[in-house]
Amino acid sequence: MNFKKSKIKYLYYFLLASLIALSFGAQSNNNIDNNKAKLTGMPVLQSGKWKAPALADNLKNPIKDIIEASKKGKKIFSIQCAICHGKSGKGDGMAGMALNPRPANLTSKKVQEQSDGAIFWKLTTGKPPMASYAKIYSAKQRWQLVSYIRTLGKKK
Known about the structure:
By secondary structure, the protein is mainly alpha-helical. It contains six helices and two strands, in the order ααββαααα. The radius of gyration is 16 Å and the shape is globular.
């Protein structure tokens, strides 16, 4: 790749990351009332950490063919998630470098120890700068993403 094309590519990623950060940054609210959050299903913030409500842990992945689901989830991940979370899910994607907070390392013990339901809930509700995927992807596709995210923990 020549220098000019490389420069344009990085400018594109920088602008994309800036747009993402600006569009979600204005919505950020770190002063959520945790009692209200538990009742409404909104994100629970504990010491600045994003925690799904306990009811999310009761959600079970309804997909039986996990291997096929993770293949489909990988396709969605490469289109939607890799730009911020990186190709291997370590939170080192090009657009993610400009975000605050930085994207989660999906291979980490912290993420992998969460229930499938908690990860599904986070994909569904989002929390700036991460978008909600409830209107973008079907529930089945979000479960496929959960299935793929599980494989990332095994690839360390």
